[in-house]
Amino acid sequence: xxxxxxxxxxxxxxxxxxxxxxxxxxxxxxxxxxxxxxxxxxxxxxxxxxxxxxxxxxxxxxxxxxxxxxxxxxxxxxxxxxxxxxxxxxxxxxxxxxxxxxxxxxxxxxxxxxxxxxxxxxxxxxxxxxxxxxxxxxxxxxxxxxxxxxxxxxxxxxxxxxxxxxxxxxxxxxxxxxxxxxxxxxxxxxxxxxxxxxxxxxxxxxxxxxxxxxxxxxxxxxxxxxxxxxxxxxxxxxxxxxxxxxxxxxxxxxxxxxxxxxxxxxxxxxxxxxxxxxxxxxxxxxxxxxxxxxxxxxxxxxxxxxxxxxxxxxxxxxxxx
Length: 321
Ligand code: ASN
Ligand code: ZN
Known about the structure:
This protein has helices at residues 66-86, 135-149, 157-179, 236-240, 246-259, 267-276, 285-300, 305-316; strands at 2-3, 17-23, 29-35, 39-43, 53-57, 98-104, 111-113, 118-121, 189-190, 205-206, 215-216, 220-221. It is of the alpha+beta class. The protein has three domains: 2-34, no CATH class; 37-149, Elastase, domain 1 (Roll), CATH 3.10.170.10; 157-316, Orthogonal Bundle (Neutral Protease, domain 2), CATH 1.10.390. The termini are far apart. The mean pLDDT is 95. The structure holds asparagine and zinc ion (ZN). Asparagine binds at residues 110-112, 141, 164.
Protein backbone atom coordinates (compact mmCIF):
# COMPACT_ATOMS: atom_id res chain seq x y z
CA UNK A 1 0.00 0.00 0.00
CA UNK A 2 1.22 3.48 -0.82
CA UNK A 3 0.25 6.71 0.92
CA UNK A 4 -0.72 9.36 -1.56
CA UNK A 5 -1.67 12.99 -1.16
CA UNK A 6 -4.97 13.72 -2.85
CA UNK A 7 -5.25 17.00 -4.70
CA UNK A 8 -8.37 18.46 -3.14
CA UNK A 9 -10.42 20.57 -5.52
CA UNK A 10 -9.24 18.77 -8.64
CA UNK A 11 -11.98 16.29 -9.42
CA UNK A 12 -12.55 13.79 -10.78
CA UNK A 13 -10.35 11.64 -8.62
CA UNK A 14 -9.81 8.25 -10.22
CA UNK A 15 -8.27 5.18 -8.67
CA UNK A 16 -8.30 1.57 -9.77
CA UNK A 17 -7.60 -0.84 -6.94
CA UNK A 18 -8.18 -1.01 -3.22
CA UNK A 19 -8.86 1.99 -1.00
CA UNK A 20 -8.36 1.56 2.76
CA UNK A 21 -9.54 4.24 5.19
CA UNK A 22 -8.27 4.43 8.76
CA UNK A 23 -7.62 6.99 11.48
CA UNK A 24 -4.10 7.43 12.89
CA UNK A 25 -2.96 8.32 16.48
CA UNK A 26 -3.47 12.02 15.90
CA UNK A 27 -7.01 11.52 14.66
CA UNK A 28 -6.17 12.25 11.03
CA UNK A 29 -7.87 10.33 8.29
CA UNK A 30 -5.43 8.06 6.45
CA UNK A 31 -6.34 6.98 2.92
CA UNK A 32 -4.29 4.11 1.53
CA UNK A 33 -4.50 3.26 -2.14
CA UNK A 34 -3.34 -0.08 -3.49
CA UNK A 35 -2.75 -0.09 -7.23
CA UNK A 36 -4.31 -2.80 -9.39
CA UNK A 37 -4.03 -4.00 -12.98
CA UNK A 38 -6.36 -3.04 -15.83
CA UNK A 39 -6.40 -5.99 -18.23
CA UNK A 40 -8.24 -6.56 -21.49
CA UNK A 41 -7.94 -9.77 -23.49
CA UNK A 42 -8.83 -9.81 -27.19
CA UNK A 43 -9.38 -12.74 -29.54
CA UNK A 44 -8.00 -12.49 -33.10
CA UNK A 45 -10.01 -15.60 -34.04
CA UNK A 46 -7.05 -16.98 -36.01
CA UNK A 47 -6.86 -13.92 -38.25
CA UNK A 48 -3.96 -11.49 -38.29
CA UNK A 49 -5.75 -8.24 -37.66
CA UNK A 50 -5.22 -6.58 -34.30
CA UNK A 51 -6.45 -6.17 -31.68
CA UNK A 52 -9.43 -8.51 -32.38
CA UNK A 53 -12.62 -8.82 -30.31
CA UNK A 54 -12.75 -8.12 -26.58
CA UNK A 55 -13.35 -11.39 -24.73
CA UNK A 56 -12.45 -10.60 -21.10
CA UNK A 57 -12.04 -7.35 -19.21
CA UNK A 58 -10.66 -6.56 -15.78
CA UNK A 59 -12.67 -8.07 -12.95
CA UNK A 60 -14.74 -10.33 -15.18
CA UNK A 61 -15.11 -14.03 -14.45
CA UNK A 62 -13.02 -16.60 -16.36
CA UNK A 63 -14.33 -17.49 -19.82
CA UNK A 64 -14.77 -20.95 -21.37
CA UNK A 65 -11.55 -20.39 -23.34
CA UNK A 66 -8.54 -21.47 -21.23
CA UNK A 67 -6.14 -19.56 -23.48
CA UNK A 68 -7.95 -16.33 -22.63
CA UNK A 69 -7.78 -17.11 -18.92
CA UNK A 70 -4.10 -18.07 -19.06
CA UNK A 71 -3.29 -14.77 -20.78
CA UNK A 72 -5.35 -12.82 -18.23
CA UNK A 73 -3.62 -14.56 -15.31
CA UNK A 74 -0.16 -14.15 -16.85
CA UNK A 75 -0.69 -10.41 -17.32
CA UNK A 76 -1.76 -10.28 -13.67
CA UNK A 77 1.34 -12.16 -12.52
CA UNK A 78 3.59 -9.76 -14.41
CA UNK A 79 1.74 -6.74 -13.00
CA UNK A 80 2.12 -8.19 -9.49
CA UNK A 81 5.87 -8.72 -9.90
CA UNK A 82 6.46 -5.16 -11.15
CA UNK A 83 4.49 -3.66 -8.28
CA UNK A 84 5.76 -5.90 -5.49
CA UNK A 85 9.42 -6.07 -6.47
CA UNK A 86 10.01 -2.68 -8.07
CA UNK A 87 7.08 -0.53 -6.88
CA UNK A 88 6.28 -0.01 -10.54
CA UNK A 89 2.60 0.47 -11.42
CA UNK A 90 2.35 -1.33 -14.78
CA UNK A 91 4.48 -0.94 -17.90
CA UNK A 92 4.73 2.85 -17.84
CA UNK A 93 4.84 3.23 -14.06
CA UNK A 94 1.52 5.08 -14.24
CA UNK A 95 -0.99 2.24 -14.37
CA UNK A 96 -1.10 1.70 -18.15
CA UNK A 97 -3.77 -0.74 -19.29
CA UNK A 98 -2.50 -4.20 -20.20
CA UNK A 99 -3.79 -5.51 -23.50
CA UNK A 100 -3.22 -8.96 -24.99
CA UNK A 101 -4.51 -10.72 -28.09
CA UNK A 102 -4.81 -14.52 -28.19
CA UNK A 103 -5.37 -16.90 -31.15
CA UNK A 104 -3.32 -14.68 -33.44
CA UNK A 105 -3.02 -16.18 -36.93
CA UNK A 106 -3.14 -19.83 -37.86
CA UNK A 107 -0.55 -22.19 -36.38
CA UNK A 108 1.41 -19.08 -35.46
CA UNK A 109 4.67 -20.07 -33.76
CA UNK A 110 5.51 -17.06 -31.64
CA UNK A 111 4.42 -14.45 -29.13
CA UNK A 112 5.46 -10.81 -29.40
CA UNK A 113 5.10 -7.29 -28.09
CA UNK A 114 3.95 -5.00 -30.92
CA UNK A 115 4.63 -1.72 -29.15
CA UNK A 116 1.13 -1.53 -27.69
CA UNK A 117 0.04 -5.01 -26.72
CA UNK A 118 1.22 -8.53 -26.40
CA UNK A 119 0.16 -11.04 -29.02
CA UNK A 120 0.07 -14.85 -28.69
CA UNK A 121 0.03 -17.48 -31.41
CA UNK A 122 -1.48 -20.89 -30.79
CA UNK A 123 1.55 -22.70 -32.17
CA UNK A 124 1.44 -25.25 -34.97
CA UNK A 125 0.85 -28.18 -32.59
CA UNK A 126 3.86 -29.97 -34.11
CA UNK A 127 6.71 -28.06 -32.51
CA UNK A 128 4.94 -25.40 -30.44
CA UNK A 129 1.77 -25.52 -28.40
CA UNK A 130 0.13 -22.27 -27.23
CA UNK A 131 2.38 -19.47 -26.00
CA UNK A 132 -0.11 -18.10 -23.46
CA UNK A 133 0.54 -21.11 -21.23
CA UNK A 134 3.95 -19.82 -20.26
CA UNK A 135 4.22 -17.19 -17.54
CA UNK A 136 7.91 -16.65 -18.37
CA UNK A 137 6.96 -15.90 -22.00
CA UNK A 138 4.24 -13.46 -20.88
CA UNK A 139 6.61 -11.74 -18.45
CA UNK A 140 9.19 -11.57 -21.24
CA UNK A 141 6.84 -9.92 -23.74
CA UNK A 142 5.51 -7.39 -21.23
CA UNK A 143 9.06 -6.55 -20.18
CA UNK A 144 9.61 -5.33 -23.76
CA UNK A 145 6.90 -2.79 -22.87
CA UNK A 146 8.71 -1.74 -19.67
CA UNK A 147 11.97 -1.36 -21.62
CA UNK A 148 10.18 0.72 -24.27
CA UNK A 149 9.08 3.11 -21.50
CA UNK A 150 12.54 3.28 -19.89
CA UNK A 151 16.00 2.78 -21.49
CA UNK A 152 14.33 1.96 -24.85
CA UNK A 153 17.27 -0.25 -25.80
CA UNK A 154 17.79 -0.32 -29.58
CA UNK A 155 16.82 -3.79 -30.86
CA UNK A 156 20.11 -4.59 -32.60
CA UNK A 157 23.52 -6.00 -31.65
CA UNK A 158 24.53 -5.68 -27.98
CA UNK A 159 21.81 -3.22 -26.94
CA UNK A 160 19.28 -5.54 -28.61
CA UNK A 161 20.69 -8.56 -26.80
CA UNK A 162 20.36 -6.58 -23.55
CA UNK A 163 16.74 -5.82 -24.47
CA UNK A 164 16.17 -9.56 -24.98
CA UNK A 165 18.08 -10.54 -21.85
CA UNK A 166 16.33 -8.08 -19.53
CA UNK A 167 13.02 -9.38 -20.92
CA UNK A 168 14.12 -12.93 -20.05
CA UNK A 169 15.12 -11.74 -16.56
CA UNK A 170 11.66 -10.23 -15.95
CA UNK A 171 10.03 -13.33 -17.47
CA UNK A 172 11.93 -15.65 -15.13
CA UNK A 173 11.25 -13.37 -12.15
CA UNK A 174 7.53 -13.32 -12.94
CA UNK A 175 7.44 -17.12 -12.84
CA UNK A 176 9.55 -17.24 -9.67
CA UNK A 177 7.46 -14.59 -7.91
CA UNK A 178 4.23 -16.39 -8.77
CA UNK A 179 5.63 -19.67 -7.44
CA UNK A 180 7.40 -18.00 -4.46
CA UNK A 181 10.56 -19.74 -5.61
CA UNK A 182 14.06 -18.98 -4.37
CA UNK A 183 16.90 -18.65 -6.89
CA UNK A 184 18.24 -22.14 -6.18
CA UNK A 185 14.80 -23.73 -6.63
CA UNK A 186 14.11 -21.94 -9.93
CA UNK A 187 14.47 -23.63 -13.34
CA UNK A 188 15.94 -20.53 -15.05
CA UNK A 189 14.15 -21.73 -18.19
CA UNK A 190 12.20 -19.42 -20.50
CA UNK A 191 9.17 -21.03 -22.16
CA UNK A 192 9.42 -24.49 -20.62
CA UNK A 193 5.70 -25.04 -21.37
CA UNK A 194 5.51 -24.38 -25.08
CA UNK A 195 7.25 -27.26 -26.88
CA UNK A 196 5.22 -30.32 -27.83
CA UNK A 197 6.45 -33.72 -26.72
CA UNK A 198 7.87 -34.25 -30.23
CA UNK A 199 10.68 -31.75 -29.58
CA UNK A 200 14.04 -32.76 -28.14
CA UNK A 201 14.29 -29.88 -25.76
CA UNK A 202 13.15 -28.39 -22.48
CA UNK A 203 12.56 -24.70 -23.26
CA UNK A 204 13.29 -21.78 -25.59
CA UNK A 205 16.26 -20.68 -23.49
CA UNK A 206 18.18 -21.70 -20.40
CA UNK A 207 19.46 -18.65 -18.52
CA UNK A 208 21.84 -20.53 -16.26
CA UNK A 209 23.25 -22.82 -18.96
CA UNK A 210 22.78 -21.02 -22.28
CA UNK A 211 23.11 -23.29 -25.30
CA UNK A 212 21.55 -26.34 -23.64
CA UNK A 213 17.81 -25.61 -24.01
CA UNK A 214 17.23 -27.85 -27.09
CA UNK A 215 18.93 -30.04 -29.65
CA UNK A 216 16.36 -31.02 -32.22
CA UNK A 217 16.17 -32.07 -35.89
CA UNK A 218 13.72 -29.31 -36.75
CA UNK A 219 14.87 -26.53 -34.40
CA UNK A 220 18.58 -27.30 -34.54
CA UNK A 221 20.78 -26.68 -31.51
CA UNK A 222 20.24 -23.86 -29.03
CA UNK A 223 22.77 -21.27 -30.32
CA UNK A 224 23.22 -19.25 -27.13
CA UNK A 225 26.69 -18.52 -25.72
CA UNK A 226 27.21 -18.07 -21.98
CA UNK A 227 30.58 -16.30 -22.15
CA UNK A 228 32.09 -13.41 -24.14
CA UNK A 229 34.71 -15.74 -25.68
CA UNK A 230 31.81 -17.37 -27.57
CA UNK A 231 30.05 -14.11 -28.56
CA UNK A 232 28.45 -14.61 -32.00
CA UNK A 233 28.82 -11.93 -34.68
CA UNK A 234 25.95 -12.35 -37.13
CA UNK A 235 23.54 -10.30 -39.24
CA UNK A 236 20.40 -12.45 -38.82
CA UNK A 237 18.15 -11.93 -35.80
CA UNK A 238 19.06 -8.23 -35.69
CA UNK A 239 22.65 -9.14 -34.96
CA UNK A 240 21.88 -12.13 -32.75
CA UNK A 241 19.68 -10.45 -30.16
CA UNK A 242 18.17 -13.83 -29.13
CA UNK A 243 21.61 -15.47 -29.28
CA UNK A 244 24.03 -13.24 -27.37
CA UNK A 245 21.38 -12.50 -24.74
CA UNK A 246 22.65 -15.77 -23.22
CA UNK A 247 25.68 -13.91 -21.85
CA UNK A 248 23.88 -11.30 -19.68
CA UNK A 249 21.22 -13.95 -18.89
CA UNK A 250 23.87 -16.14 -17.31
CA UNK A 251 25.37 -13.18 -15.43
CA UNK A 252 21.96 -12.53 -13.86
CA UNK A 253 21.31 -16.17 -12.93
CA UNK A 254 24.80 -16.51 -11.40
CA UNK A 255 24.29 -13.31 -9.40
CA UNK A 256 20.90 -14.46 -8.13
CA UNK A 257 22.34 -17.82 -7.05
CA UNK A 258 25.35 -16.13 -5.45
CA UNK A 259 23.13 -13.78 -3.39
CA UNK A 260 20.56 -16.50 -2.62
CA UNK A 261 16.96 -16.03 -1.55
CA UNK A 262 14.34 -14.57 -3.86
CA UNK A 263 15.97 -13.35 -7.08
CA UNK A 264 13.61 -10.38 -7.45
CA UNK A 265 14.64 -8.92 -4.09
CA UNK A 266 18.28 -7.98 -4.67
CA UNK A 267 19.49 -9.20 -8.09
CA UNK A 268 16.19 -8.09 -9.65
CA UNK A 269 16.20 -4.70 -7.93
CA UNK A 270 19.77 -4.06 -9.12
CA UNK A 271 18.87 -4.96 -12.73
CA UNK A 272 15.69 -2.88 -12.56
CA UNK A 273 17.53 0.21 -11.30
CA UNK A 274 20.23 -0.25 -13.94
CA UNK A 275 17.51 -0.32 -16.62
CA UNK A 276 15.59 2.66 -15.26
CA UNK A 277 18.55 4.90 -14.42
CA UNK A 278 20.66 6.73 -16.97
CA UNK A 279 21.32 3.75 -19.26
CA UNK A 280 21.83 4.72 -22.90
CA UNK A 281 19.55 3.25 -25.60
CA UNK A 282 22.66 1.95 -27.36
CA UNK A 283 24.28 0.48 -24.25
CA UNK A 284 26.88 -2.24 -24.69
CA UNK A 285 27.20 -5.21 -22.32
CA UNK A 286 30.02 -3.41 -20.50
CA UNK A 287 27.97 -0.22 -20.12
CA UNK A 288 25.06 -2.21 -18.73
CA UNK A 289 27.40 -4.08 -16.37
CA UNK A 290 28.71 -0.71 -15.15
CA UNK A 291 25.11 0.45 -14.64
CA UNK A 292 24.37 -2.62 -12.49
CA UNK A 293 27.47 -1.95 -10.37
CA UNK A 294 26.40 1.69 -9.90
CA UNK A 295 22.87 0.57 -9.02
CA UNK A 296 24.19 -1.91 -6.45
CA UNK A 297 26.44 0.79 -4.96
CA UNK A 298 23.56 3.25 -4.69
CA UNK A 299 21.20 0.66 -3.22
CA UNK A 300 23.50 -1.32 -0.90
CA UNK A 301 26.70 0.72 -0.42
CA UNK A 302 30.02 0.94 -2.26
CA UNK A 303 31.69 -1.91 -0.35
CA UNK A 304 28.63 -4.11 -0.05
CA UNK A 305 28.54 -7.85 -0.73
CA UNK A 306 25.99 -7.09 -3.45
CA UNK A 307 28.50 -4.94 -5.37
CA UNK A 308 31.18 -7.62 -5.10
CA UNK A 309 28.70 -10.27 -6.27
CA UNK A 310 27.65 -8.19 -9.28
CA UNK A 311 31.29 -7.74 -10.32
CA UNK A 312 31.91 -11.49 -9.87
CA UNK A 313 28.95 -12.33 -12.10
CA UNK A 314 30.17 -10.11 -14.95
CA UNK A 315 33.68 -11.57 -14.61
CA UNK A 316 32.26 -15.10 -14.77
CA UNK A 317 30.78 -14.40 -18.22
CA UNK A 318 33.84 -12.50 -19.49
CA UNK A 319 32.21 -9.05 -19.68
CA UNK A 320 34.64 -7.91 -16.97
CA UNK A 321 38.28 -9.12 -16.98
N1 ASN B 1 9.06 -13.76 -29.02
C1 ASN B 1 10.03 -12.92 -29.66
C2 ASN B 1 10.55 -11.93 -28.66
O1 ASN B 1 9.81 -11.34 -27.88
C3 ASN B 1 9.46 -12.23 -30.82
C4 ASN B 1 10.48 -11.47 -31.56
O2 ASN B 1 11.51 -11.98 -31.94
N2 ASN B 1 10.26 -10.21 -31.75
O3 ASN B 1 11.72 -11.66 -28.61
ZN1 ZN C 1 11.83 -10.73 -26.83
